[in-house]
Amino acid sequence: MSENLAPVRKALKQPAKRKAQSRERLLAAARKLFVERGYHDTRPQDIAKEADVGHGTFYLHFADKRACFLAFVEEAREELSEFVAQRAAKAKGLEGSIEAVLVSIYEYSDLHPGVLATAMTDDVVIASDSADGQTPLLQRWGEQWAETVKTLTAESGGIPAGLDAGVVGQAIVGAIHQASSVAHRQGKQRAAVVKTLTKFLARALRG
Amino acid sequence: MSENLAPVRKALKQPAKRKAQSRERLLAAARKLFVERGYHDTRPQDIAKEADVGHGTFYLHFADKRACFLAFVEEAREELSEFVAQRAAKAKGLEGSIEAVLVSIYEYSDLHPGVLATAMTDDVVIASDSADGQTPLLQRWGEQWAETVKTLTAESGGIPAGLDAGVVGQAIVGAIHQASSVAHRQGKQRAAVVKTLTKFLARALRG
Amino acid sequence: MSENLAPVRKALKQPAKRKAQSRERLLAAARKLFVERGYHDTRPQDIAKEADVGHGTFYLHFADKRACFLAFVEEAREELSEFVAQRAAKAKGLEGSIEAVLVSIYEYSDLHPGVLATAMTDDVVIASDSADGQTPLLQRWGEQWAETVKTLTAESGGIPAGLDAGVVGQAIVGAIHQASSVAHRQGKQRAAVVKTLTKFLARALRG
Amino acid sequence: MSENLAPVRKALKQPAKRKAQSRERLLAAARKLFVERGYHDTRPQDIAKEADVGHGTFYLHFADKRACFLAFVEEAREELSEFVAQRAAKAKGLEGSIEAVLVSIYEYSDLHPGVLATAMTDDVVIASDSADGQTPLLQRWGEQWAETVKTLTAESGGIPAGLDAGVVGQAIVGAIHQASSVAHRQGKQRAAVVKTLTKFLARALRG
DNA sequence: TATGAATGAGCATTCATTCAT
DNA sequence: CATGAATGAATGCTCATTCAT
Fold first, then answer.
1. Under DSSP, is residue B68 helix (H, G, I), strand (E, B) or coil?
2. b/e for C51-64, b at 16 or more Cβ within 10 A?
3. In terms of pLDDT, which residue wins out, C175 or B3?
4. pLDDT number for residue A76
5. Strand F: which residues 108-167 of C lie within 7 A (CB)?
6. Which residues in chain B have their CB less than 8 angstroms from residue A193's CB?
7. C83: Cα within 13 Å, side-chain hemisphere
8. Is the pLDDT of residue B10 over 50?
9. Cβ separation of A138 and B178 shorter than 8 Å?
């Protein structure tokens, strides 16, 4: 009987590998369920079951449910970051670069539906009493945009005078997020969104 | 002590007035607690207690907790709407108008700290199974901005060619929301935020 | 429009009549709702509303919900009693009398669907702490049957020797109730039920 | 103190056994409380407490309160079934068999006071919206009686002509139930009840 | 006599987390 | 390292009844 019980669990050479594998499986399961059902409707038990490990194992790898969610967010962030970096690297000019980034983001969304929307479920939703902070994903992206903007506008003399780069970065990411969310909700043509956002942001940043 | 014990409850001649007053009291209590503790950490019981009415009375006025929250959101929306309309009415020009609106919003926030941030807690947080929809506050404001932008750009030939007004409206509100939230979180100077956002948006919209 | 607004409420000559009318209306409403929804799913509020009187008025006429239900039961009992008495009076012989009673009961059930089944909802369902007793409807009918049986068997020498009349009465009513309930639930032909029950009981009682 | 603190909980080697034991304890506690207080006055919490387990454990074993009650009913049904089968097996003749069954039932009732009365609390009392049905205990017994009667009357030519076996089965169980309930309520001599019911039913069934 | 706003005890159920094995 | 049975605090909501008008 013991051989065919949970065959996926065998063939684990080293304990270290086994632990790593459990974590991977849990993270993949968490990602799937968080995206499908949302944070509040996903229980650690569900994640463990989906990952085919015992309930208790969950807490061997994550301090609590929130930590698991944040791990998922971090994973998504890195994934998107790499994805965009590869795609948008060769874009030229302010407008071209913005468009390339937008297109990459949408392509990532197509490849991993719901992941970005779920990962941005931050602020209030998973609030914990400990109030430890963990900068929201959107804000971190805003900070990146602040840097990106400096680079993109370098040849045209930098960010227009009087504009605070930090504020601009957040404004950009906010604009993209809100416009995209609503467009998605309304089933709007994606091309129009990309075009409008690109022009809108380029005009705002151009000298 | 006996004089100030529930003095608000006296002299209620007509049941209709009495009921209306209860609702008002509940709504005020709800607003206070939702802002102070957030949606999830506020129980109908707490609201009733704060309003100095029985638990059951809460359900005499609101179908459920969610309905109460939405009533609070609606109240805040109308309040802000009036507030901004009065303040920004006499502003002149694209840049002037944008600035006036931004300043009004910040003034409202000073007068009613936390209300806007709480009222925007829409989307996922208070999700119900019934999935009735209720357009998020931010999106509604985005739609208003779309209209506003058409008016403001009328003299300079309307919205720049190729821009989708709906997308632009959402982009504006997203930019304002995100930039303001982060600025607030970081304790940034408000003047810089107003200035940057005003210029940023005006540049984007100018012909 | 004003003429047909609650026309039932006007033209109340004397207060005494008004009170009696309220009670009647409440009882009719109670009967309707108890039958349609059952005891537990009918609230005094619902009854008052259906009767088109204020919620508080309910307690002007009934001590509590239970008393209202018992009043409904009593009404049904009297109604059925009269109904059966009229129909079964002229029946001849043991078998004929039993059949006449059974047929009358079924006719009553057709005229007032659900009333008997609901009225028999006694024992546990509406249990109150006060445990005042109120003999269950079924038991009272059993007692009546005990008397009836004595009369019907008089000419053949009375109840067969060794049989306790009280027990027999309850047995008869129990047999009728259970057989009819299940037959109704199973959509069985009524004629077969009447025939079988009549023969069954007549054989048991014949000398 | 340490010796008698939850001594039942010790020495539980395997989790499977532990789980089974919990269920047993819960079921025993449920039986006790349902019989003592009735369905509506027994809360899952009470059952858990009586079983000396946490509240949540209750829902580890039963989907809901209703499922727990039905499990109790099933247990009682099987218990009585075995009990009667053993006692009434060697009875001879129609009258003898009926009497043996009746006596067995009363003996079971003496051994487990209140269990049968409680288990028959089916129909309306524990009604759920899902309306899944679950044939009432009394009806099931009626169906069994239909079979029993066929066997018992086999030698005398089967069920008397014109009688529907199904109807007869339900009539018998109804007669027994109602007569016994009332006799119990009235503190009537048990021997008289057995004697009367036996004769009554035997006469009805004899050819 | 009538009203209907107000009441608050009461309840079934969930779920993040622990810990003995 | 893994397990999964056990936990119990916490919560939104109902409804029979009262009472000021």
1. helix
2. bebeeebbeebbee
3. C175
4. 95
5. none
6. 164, 167
7. 19
8. no
9. yes
